[in-house]
Amino acid sequence: MWIDFSYLCWAVSAVLVAWMLFDWYKTDTSYSEEALTSSREGEIEATSEKHKV
Amino acid sequence: MSQSTMTATPTKISLSRVLGPAHVWALGVGIVLVGEYTGWNFSADKGGSLAALIVCWVIGLLYTSVAMIDSEVTSTIAAAGGQYAQAKHIVGPLMAFNVALYMVFAYTMLEVSDAILVGDTIVAKAGTDGLNHNAFLAVTIIGLAWLNYRGVLATLNFNFIITALAYLAIVVLFLSVAPWSQGTVLRLGEMITPANALPYGWIGVIASFHFGIWYFLGIEGTTQAAEEVRSPARALPYGTMAGMITLLIAGAMTWYVCASLMPWEYLGTTYYPLWDAGKLTGSPALENMMFYATLLAAIASANGCVNDAARAWFSLGRDRYLPTWFSAVHPKYRTPYRSIVFLLPIALAFAFISDLNQAITFSILSGVLQYTFMSINIVMFRNRWPLGSIRRGYTHPFHPLPAIVLFILCVITFFAIFLGYGAQLTAMVVFYLVVSIWFHFYRYQYVRRGDQFTMPWPKPKGF
């Protein structure tokens, strides 16, 4: 059972890596580099103040 | 890239301010609590069970100083990167670059240690021939990277729940062994006698500082959330101090139960002191509870470490200390997704090739380097911006006593590490010297010097 569980862990790991790489590619090709790296230290983003937890 | 997507792109994509004090507590205690489940007990191997208690108190003093100092500075400099941003504003760029590397190393190697612990604990529980821990290491590191990639709020909500469960398990174990009645289950008087209390004398107590650090290693990680909490001036001091109080109680309970159930020779070498304590009570329910709690504590710690290492790396990119490519924020999840994914294979590689002791030692070394910096940093901070010159969310008492205590205890800890792992200590110091030279003579030319100082403060005193 534990051996099967370890195979399942490998499979889940592979799926999650594939998901992250796919999302990374999709994001990088959908937005400009300037927008993605526009964060600046010390700025309080106005829209985030409206976020509801 | 379609024009419509480009048009919809917001002008600024920043980290989200969605966290509260409970998340700060979950981040700090989550990173640290695994130290009660494994790590602290190796100090008993260095100096005996009584030495493990003495360092719990003394290292507790070191970390209380860290928490107080950190709370004051970070409630004033609320930026991702934590101590990196502090060093940048107060000491200078070269110190900041080194501090960021200390943090990335400390958290990545701690994450590696946690993942190894998860894998080894499952393999030990399974007792199946041919079962390797690699699959469990991989799913821990990758699964947590995925969770961090998807957003900080879900990540730290998850951490809050599993950290609280792991903490509750220590309380339940403590109450289950009738701590008020020695001899019922606990036998402290038999385990610690005048003959074996300090088997190597006081030099053993000094040597035990090395692993005593694990009682509280990582509480300073709360500051990495500075840019994502709704109210940094309130949430960071409150979450950090509450975390430190929680951990002091957990450390004392853990020592009392484990030292009362195991002789120091065994306690100092086992990888699972609390799980073993559960077994030694003779209760299958407690044994199983401590097994699952060990896993939860290790996962919570690794989760916080992924969060913190990525923020430190992201901050270096944002200031051009590293390529700005690393400073990308995910437009939907608002996380430093490239830094998270970049650090993933590094953690995996170390997890597959390191053993637990080596990984712990590298993490401790980087942590203690950072604490040494903090003792100097707070003195410079108070001298350059005295009380009343800038707004502080929290002002720590008895200055400069905590800074002096912190510095002295860091020096003793370096000596203790040198006694056991002198080669690693030397190698790490040489590594930081080499990267400092690289940064000073090569990388710093790419930094936009005026842009990196973001706090609207008056000129420092004396400038």
Q: Describe it for me?
A:
The complex is a heterodimer of chains A (53) and B (463). Chain A starts with a helix and ends in a 17-residue tail after the last helix. Chain A is built from two helices and no strands. Chain B has one domain: Amino acid/polyamine transporter I (Up-down Bundle), CATH 1.20.1740. Classes of the chains: A mainly alpha (53), B mainly alpha (463). Chains A and B meet through helix 1 and helix 2 of A and helix 8, helix 16 and helix 17 of B.
Domain module tally of chain B: 1
- How many helices of chain A does DSSP assign? 2
Structural class of chain A: mainly alpha
- Count all strands of chain A and give the number: 0
Please bin the fraction of helical residues of chain B: 55-70%
The computed structural class of chain B is mainly alpha
What's the overall geometry of chain B? Answer: globular
Number of helices of chain B: 19
What is the fold's blueprint, element by element?
The complex is a heterodimer of chains A (53) and B (463).
Chain A: H1 2-30, H2 33-36
Chain B: H1 3-8, H2 21-32, H3 34-37, H4 42-47, H5 49-74, H6 83-90, H7 93-126, H8 134-150, H9 152-176, H10 188-191, H11 201-207, H12 209-212, H13 232-261, H14 264-267, H15 273-280, H16 284-318, H17 337-353, H18 356-384, H19 401-441
Helix pairs in contact in B: 2-9, 2-13, 2-16, 5-11, 5-13, 5-18, 5-19, 6-7, 6-18, 7-8, 7-16, 7-17, 7-18, 7-19, 8-16, 8-17, 9-13, 9-16, 13-15, 15-16, 16-17, 18-19
Key terms:
heterodimer; A: mainly alpha; 62% helix; B: 463 residues; mainly alpha; Amino acid/polyamine transporter I; disordered N terminus
Task: Give a short overview.
The complex is a heterodimer of chains A (53) and B (463). Chain A has 53 residues and is mainly α.
